[in-house]
């Protein structure tokens, strides 16, 4: 697994997703609650400050109301502004083009605010002055008539109040909201870790148990904790593992019995077959002198005895592979010379085309190489068409032997089963020359040759020009693996 795939697997893991889900939930909930609380508290604080300022200004105006002399002079404007100012606010008095002296905040008055005040309403506006929030409140003073009615006096009163204290309270509230959000996030992560631990521990245990079960440890069981859904999964896993263990045990027992039966029968048949072979040798010598049907019967008995002997020998060889007792007798072999000897012993030298470069030396089992090549060439003669070709090539690590023919090749549905035991492509034929074990034995012999991670192989395919092609690859420096499968 590459680094990026490992990182991706960790990031997309269930633990990380649980942490992200809890963290997102905590952050979202905290943000919504804290934001709502903050804005609501901010509105309340500012509204209270505004109401208090309006009430204070109204209370102060009652002390100077009603205005009886108009137009006022500058001293009267200044005196009125002084009387309406206190420690928390400053007053600005405007009468047409006149304004009270020291009206430092006059430039803060916006046309919209003055318009609302001119219309006779109490108006307010929040502005920033020297980086500090400031509240402007304005109202108009009216003259009282003798009949009890009032008329506009032209006097506008504005109160300038700093909201710095309220802003500091709002800032402290925001800091508390952020602190609360941070603590909530930490709490959410801790809860996520606890939840992930409680949820993922059974999942991890299940994953490890499944891997051990897949590796062949059928005794693997899970510890059942609690009575929740994960406990039900653990119980189901244990029941499944128990059933699988029983079934596999029964299958292994039956397979072992079948192999033992084949091996015992094969060994028991060798003695009578040896006697029969001796008799058939005599029959072969006399077959030509026997009349008609007697001669044909003698030759038939001899041929079938040879086939039966070959079948028994193949079954014994298969039983060695199954029991893991097959061993290699390794030797330094001139591969080209060994292949030539295989063909010469069986009388195939004139029938087989060869491309055998000299000087290819490998450490392998010469007897098993002979069995493999003899089976491949014999199979090509039986099921393919001549000419049959044997090619040899090599590199520093491998020896490659290719056996090909010019027959019809292998059908697509036959290729996956070529090396299966007792498999015959033509199921309609009741009898055939082969036992159906030759290619399986060749495949097993190829796999016995190994060196480290390199293991011999035998592959069947069809050539580009037609015909079957069997490719044998063996390590050049085979080490005896002790019959390991």
Describe the structure in your own words:
This protein has ten helices and 14 strands. By secondary structure, it is α+β, with helices and mostly antiparallel strands. The strands form four sheets. A five-stranded antiparallel β-sheet has the order 2-1-5-4-3, sandwiched between helices. A hairpin with a 5-residue loop joins β13 and β14 (468-475). α2 (14-64) packs antiparallel against α5 (164-214), α5 runs parallel beside α6 and α9 packs antiparallel against α10. The radius of gyration is 52 Å and the shape is rod-shaped.
Q: If helices are DSSP runs of H or I spanning 4 or more residues, what is the number of helices?
A: 10
Query: Could you spell the SSE succession in H and E letters?
Result: HHHEEHEEEHHHEHEEHEEHEEEE
What would you report as the Rg, rounded to the nearest angstrom?
52 Å
Mean pLDDT: 76
Q: Give the overall shape, derived from the CA principal axes.
A: rod-shaped
How many strands? 14
Structural class category = alpha+beta
Contiguous low-pLDDT stretches (5 residues minimum) are: 3-12, 427-431
Strand content: 15-25%
Placed side by side, the strands forming the largest sheet appear as 2-1-5-4-3
**What percent of residues adopt helix (DSSP H or I)?**
40-55%
Report the biggest beta sheet as strand number plus sense, adding barrel if it closes: 5 strands, antiparallel
**CA(first)-CA(last) distance:** 27 Å
């Amino acid at each position: 697994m590459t680094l990026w795939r490992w990182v991706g697997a960790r990031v997309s893991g269930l633990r990380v997703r649980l942490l992200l889900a809890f963290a997102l939930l905590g952050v979202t909930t905290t943000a919504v609650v804290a934001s709502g609380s903050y804005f609501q508290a901010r509105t309340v604080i500012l509204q209270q400050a505004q109401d208090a300022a309006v009430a204070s200004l109204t209370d102060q105006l009652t002390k100077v109301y009603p205005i009886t002399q108009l137009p006022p002079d500058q001293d009267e404007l200044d005196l009125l502004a002084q009387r309406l100012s206190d420690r928390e606010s400053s007053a600005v008095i405007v009468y047409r083009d006149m304004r009270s002296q020291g009206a430092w905040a006059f430039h803060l008055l916006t046309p919209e605010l003055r318009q609302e005040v001119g219309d006779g309403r109490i108006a307010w506006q929040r502005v920033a002055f020297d980086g500090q929030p400031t509240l402007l409140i304005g109202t108009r003073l009216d003259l009282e008539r003798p009949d009890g009615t009032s008329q506009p006096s032209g006097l506008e009163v504005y109160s300038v109040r700093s909201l710095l204290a309220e802003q500091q309270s709002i800032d402290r509230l925001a800091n508390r909201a952020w602190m609360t959000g941070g603590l909530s996030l930490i709490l959410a992560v801790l809860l996520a870790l606890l939840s992930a631990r409680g949820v993922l521990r059974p999942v991890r245990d299940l994953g490890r148990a499944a891997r051990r079960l897949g590796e062949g440890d059928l005794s693997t069981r899970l510890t059942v904790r609690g009575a929740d859904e994960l406990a039900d999964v653990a119980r189901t896993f244990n029941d499944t593992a128990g059933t699988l263990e029983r079934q596999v045990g029964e299958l292994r027992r039956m397979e072992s019995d079948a192999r033992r039966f084949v091996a015992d029968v094969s060994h028991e048949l060798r003695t009578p077959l040896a006697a029969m072979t001796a008799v058939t040798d005599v029959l072969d010598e006399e077959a030509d002198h026997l009349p008609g049907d007697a001669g044909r019967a003698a030759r038939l008995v001899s041929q079938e005895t040879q086939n039966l002997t070959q079948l028994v020998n193949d079954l014994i060889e298969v039983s060695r592979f199954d029991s893991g007792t097959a061993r290699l007798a390794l030797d330094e072999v001139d591969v080209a010379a060994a292949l030539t000897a295989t063909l010469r012993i069986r009388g195939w030298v004139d029938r087989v085309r060869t491309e055998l470069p000299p000087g290819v030396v490998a450490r392998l089992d010469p007897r098993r190489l002979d069995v493999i090549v003899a089976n491949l060439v014999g199979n090509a003669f039986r099921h393919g068409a001549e000419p049959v070709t044997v090619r040899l090539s090599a590199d520093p690590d491998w020896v490659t032997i290719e056996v090909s023919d010019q027959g019809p090749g292998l059908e697509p549905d036959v290729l996956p089963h070529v090396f299966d035991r007792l498999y015959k492509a033509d199921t309609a034929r009741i009898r055939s020359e082969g036992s159906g074990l030759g290619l399986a034995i060749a495949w097993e012999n190829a796999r016995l040759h190994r060196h480290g991670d390199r293991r011999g192989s035998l592959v069947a395919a069809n050539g580009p020009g037609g015909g079957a092609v069997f490719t044998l690859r063996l390590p050049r420096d085979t080490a005896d693996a002790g019959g390991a499968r």
